[in-house]
Amino acid sequence: MSTLQIEGGPLLVGKVCVPPDKSVFHRAVFLSSISNGQSVIAPLSFGADNLSTLQVMQTLGVEVEVDEAKNEARLLGCGHPRGFRPGPLSLDCGNSGTTMRLLTGLLAASRSTYQLTGDESLTGRPMSRLRPLERMGAQIRGRSVAGRIYPPLEVEGAALRGGDFELEVASAQVKTALLLAGLFAEGPTRIREPGRSRDHTERMLRALSVRLDEAPDGCLTLLPRAAPFENPRFLVPPDFSSAAFMLAAALLTGGAGVEVRTGVNPTRTGFLDIVRAFGAEVDEREALMLSEEPVATLSVSGGGRLRGAEIGGSLTLRALDEIPLVAALAAFAEGTTRIRDAGELRVKESDRLAATAVLLRAFGARVTEHPDGLEIEGGRDRLHAASVTPALDHRLVMTAAVVGLALQGVTTVHGADIIGVSYPGFAADLRRLGAQVEQVEPVSVPVR
To answer: Exposed e or buried b for every residue in 249-274, given b needs 16+ CB within 10 A?
Structure first.
């Protein structure tokens, strides 16, 4: 595995446009796969998770052409899950939980059986929340451990029926799996969540003229699709979760001259509200809509006067992917920060709560772990550069790099290859802003 070597100190300045939103790209590929004619998705995403989705759809018979010159993917879909290459087939989802969960929703509407597997990290993630698809008529089997099911999954599609579904945990992945299945079910599909998860799927379906209503209490009602989509075109906004790392780096190094072009979907931007709660300022300008998704240029300032904050409820939900980064900012803030309602992070690529606590302690931070969150006693003076080996989790590796940028001395972050899951150009973009970051590849020693 390669390492990142970061020398802290330089102020960052410049403009950066982060990679395409991987959540939207996944969904665009799945919707293209059930369309007629040629679909176009632009710009391209070369994150490993998105490539996993493209590869499994190719295995299922979707024709995929990647045009790097035009920065777009063109897909020839199958019109319906029943048009996929019939099973039994084994579909490798790599490291991508989004691929596995959303794909299960589509395959539920097939009339065939498929096995979904992935790497060691993915096969250790519970998939029991997909059980509502069985109430629609599909069958889902997997390894059973302590009442939960784990991959590899066997998904047996069927004639589906709609119904009422009340999710125990707000989850955009489970919600999307139900919506994709509901497109092909008999009767309406109604979904209620305890909180509002990201709404990319709803925006995309409405743009495709799907009847999808939202009641005042948040209940979604989807009516099945009578005919396939025809030749859709998807424009993918820049990824806010990637932008958050650039904004945090700017905040901690005093780089008020950093401008980041990114998506600003309000169901995703809890991180900005948390930054404001810490006492920093966020400037948003040049706003526009890109295929139903808001986009803007962001900059931040005030990193030298951060103060602790209480973070929980819907704010945590809207910043769930960025919670390790929030904890890192809290380590530099004055006072104590308490993060609550983040128990979902225990079943991500790693146990992100436990792994974040371990990571920040390596830099000298004082962190107390709770079942659903963290308590961080802030203070820049106690922090120092370090050599760290985060869990094999792309967000933790990038969080460690951001911390290192703000500290004097050299920080070494092992396991940098995993960044390619979501942000292959992370180190290059930091260098473009003036950071001293070097990605060092392992030395290969020939065997004699």
So the answer is: bbbbbebbebbbbbbbbebbbbbbbb
Residues with a known catalytic role? 321
For the chain, domains (ranges, CATH) are: 3-20+237-440 (3.65.10.10), 22-216 (3.65.10.10)
Using the Cα atoms of residue 401, residue 403, residue 406 and residue 408 in order, give the sign of their dihedral.
Answer: negative
Q: DSSP 3-state assignment of 328?
A: helix
Distance (Å, whole) CA 356 – CA 95: 19
Q: Is residue 445 scored above 60 in pLDDT?
A: no
Helix (H, G, I), strand (E, B) or coil at 90: strand
Spatial distance between the Cα atoms of 56 and 41, rounded to a whole number of angstroms: 17
SS3 225: coil
Q: Give residue 330's Cα distance to chain centre.
A: 22
Q: Which residue has the tokens 């001259």?
A: 257
pLDDT of residue 26 exceeding 70: yes
Tell me the residue length of the chain.
Answer: 448
User: Per the structure block, which two tokens stand in for 294?
Assistant: 């808001």
**Residue 110 and residue 157: Cα distance in Å, rounded?**
4
Q: What is the DSSP string of 379-400?
A: -GGG----EE---S-HHHHHHH
pTM of this prediction?
0.94
165 is written with which tokens?
Answer: 């579904």
Task: Average the pLDDT over each of 246-260, 394-408, 433-447 and give the range with the smallest value.
Answer: 433-447
Using CA atoms, how far apart are residues 242 and 448, in angstroms rounded to an integer?
A: 43
Given a contact cutoff of 8 angstroms between Cβ atoms, the answer to whether 304 and 341 are in contact is no
322 — phi, psi (to 5°)? -100, 5
d(Cα 205, Cα 119) in Å, to the nearest integer?
30
> Are the C-beta atoms of 96 and 52 separated by less than 8 Å?
yes
Cα 243–chain centre separation: 12
Q: What is the pLDDT of residue 350?
A: 81
Q: What is the pLDDT of residues 266-293, one digit of tens each?
A: 999 999 999 999 999 999 999 999 989 9
List, edge to edge, every strand of the sheet that includes 212-214. Answer: 161-166, 186-192, 220-222, 212-214
State the pLDDT confidence band at 391, using cuts at 50, 70 and 90. confident
- Integer-rounded Cα Rg, in Å, for the chain is 22
Residue 134 has a pLDDT of 97
Average confidence (pLDDT) over 90-108:
97
